[in-house]
Amino acid sequence: MSTPGISVLDGKYMVTMDMFPQQSREFNQIYPFFEHLKEGRFTTTKCRECGAEPFPPRVLCPECLSTNLDWIDWPTVGTVVEVTEEVVGVPLGFGKPPLVHALVDLQGKRTFFVRIINCREGELKPGDQVKLAVFDIDPVPQEMGREVVMVPRVFYAFEPVK
Amino acid sequence: MDRNVCVIAGGMSKWGVREGSQRDFFQEAAKACYDDNPLVKPKDIDGLLVASAYTERTSYQTHLAPLVAEYIGVKPKNVCARVELLCASGSSAIILAFAMIKSGQADVVMVTGGEKLYTPQKWEVFYSELASVDHDWDGSQGLGLPPPVFAMVAKQHMKQYGTKKEHLAQVSVKNRRNAVHNPNAQFRKAITMEEAMAARMIVPPLTLFDCCPITDGAAAIILAAEEKAKELTDRPLVYIRGTGQASVNNMSANMPTWTTWEALKIAAKQAYTKSRVEPKDIDVAMTHDCFTISEIIEMEDLGFCEKGEGGPFVADGQTDFGGKVPVNTDGGLLGCGHPFGGTGIRQGIEVMKQLRGDAAQQVPNAAIGLTHNLSGFIAAHTVVIYGREP
């Protein structure tokens, strides 16, 4: 696949153009989050010293600076606080407009601003329940010694509970 | 050492969908800045700070400050660096230049900022915006251009405080009207309430005129120690009195509240305290009207009106000429556009002109002015207060 105007980029993957994070052990110390996602679990890190549950997951507790952290499960069902539907300006890779987002109260843990998928325009309203939805995304070609290995990846959104 | 710091020159390129490159606009801004005060020569400038957020993504250029210095004839000897805080890059650079001069580390610092955001294909701008929020956690939810975030803010402000779509429209009508008098603004055509109310939908309840545009352009301003300023300008002196910059969260899940911006209240308190003024003392303000709802909340959290009263405050004309505090007298982001690194500098230039008494639309006897930027996912707030007295 040639890239017009930049012929040297023939078929190359560019991390600077990737809309999702790196998920392999080599490029991300919180890679277990993504391993858990593959099992349908939504997790974060909990500090063994002070009990804080920061999100996004960390390698350092921002409250007490401990590095003694455990993975814990958070709820996968939440309640919609408010909904927006983006008609203009949807970035590449996020489908045709409208792009639906909701502010979701995850049972008091945090209020997340998340993408809603598998949802018709006008379908979602405040008070509705949504659940975690995990899906495959493009793998990353990663050099492992002299080999290039395709590293599989997943990501998450939420979807209406039907 | 603790010195007073003055603003002695400022100018900007034409802003908008521009023909040209990033470095073209930095040269145009520097020319306008030098023309504003012919007494200042490049040899007088001992520091250069360059504010730009997207230089690597849209111009494939890092190490920007020495490049700009070479193009605008400056040979800095005390500081030559780039500053980045997305939409508040410019005012962040002003804060740092102020601190360097105040502490005696530099005497005369040019702060310039700007962006070339339009690329040969527009999709790339929207795509690059995924880097503006927490890329791994918010960008990956499709939060590129920010209208969905501010639509969420507007919906909740409407629900909690009864703010109406008409209030939002009044902000855009005012700021577009002010931009008519600004030759460098992106939009120089006034709009009516009817046009604002009937504009095409972007993210409900935000329509086209509720959103600032994507903009190319640059601006430049020169700060100097008071004793240097007295040599280098024959215009009334304008001082920076105090500053504040605060952040209490970055990722959306850690936003304390959506309709009261805690970091803004903290930054404002810091700036008011250091400047020894109160909200009622502010004669003119440039606040970050990236969206109409932003200006309404900023009126509340800067202390210009009570919480929840931002909509009626705007509707009563209190932010227009003759009101309690004229806001965005040069057109703001909604009228001038928003090349991220340039915006805080554009605001500083307008406040400098208002306090010197030579603004295109002058607030009579303006003595104290304020600028405010928000940046990212409403994640940081920056406030700078200027005065005719130190």
CATH class of the largest domain in chain B: Alpha Beta
CATH superfamily of the largest domain in chain B: Thiolase/Chalcone synthase
Percentage beta strand of chain B: 15-25%
Count the DSSP helices of chain A. Answer: 1
Gyration radius from CA atoms of chain A, angstroms: 18 Å
**CATH architecture designation of the largest domain in chain B:** 3-Layer(aba) Sandwich
Structural class of chain B: alpha/beta
Strand order of the largest sheet of chain B: 3-2-4-7-1-8-11-10-9
Low-confidence stretches of chain B: none
- Describe the oligomeric state of these chains in a short phrase: heterodimer
Query: Could you give the order of the helices and strands of chain A?
Result: HEEEEEEE
Q: Alpha-carbon distance between the termini of chain B?
A: 16 Å
Number of domains of chain B: 2
Rg of chain B over CA atoms, rounded to whole Å, is 19 Å
- In whole angstroms, the N-to-C terminal distance of chain A is 41 Å
